[in-house]
Amino acid sequence: MNPKVLIIVSNANTIGPNNRRTGTFLSEVAHPYAEFEKAGYQIDFASLTGESPFLDALNLADDPDNLKFLIGKGWEKMHNAAKLSNVDVSSYDAVFVPGGLAPMVDMPETVELKKVIAEFYETNRVVGAVCHGPVSLLNVKLSDGTYLVNSKNIASFTTEEEDNYARPDVPFDLQTALTEQGAIFHAAKPWSANSIADGNLVTGQNPASAKGVGEKIVALLEAKKA
Where is the DJ-1/PfpI domain (predicted)? Predict the structure, then answer.
């Protein structure tokens, strides 16, 4: 059987004191989706509340993978995302969390999400996230009481990138928070492609890294099939 991937998305549509409009960043979901689709995987979506999620960066719709996501099955599936607590996560081989600013609103502390991420990781399944998506890894504790990110090689949106993007809007600095929980943080040049795999954990820095994250998740899943 082909692997099954669960994409978990935020339900937030505003962030910060000025109610900046946000959502899931289009290319950060569309580019990995394209890699999973190309590999022939079953792809399903879940959101934290089960309400229709929001997309950001629709101005990038002329990108081929983004456009295919919007007019193909991708956005339709995301729009109809199941509520995470209603999903039987045991049947999936990988979980992936795309970014955009939205996850910074509803993913830092959500207990159900942290439980799901820990379950995937501790059952030797693939966990992936990109840009602000690695906020989903924050505060995840494993059964031995340690933070999941402790001593792991991690990439996410960097302090330097945030300073020139949404510093007044975000509730905290993601790079700092991950590092404080023991992550070995890998920051590349701002807005350059930077994805990294540490065992079954795959993370990426920014929108340019989303395709690489998808490719690395596929490589890990294919290796498990061998």
Answer: 27-218
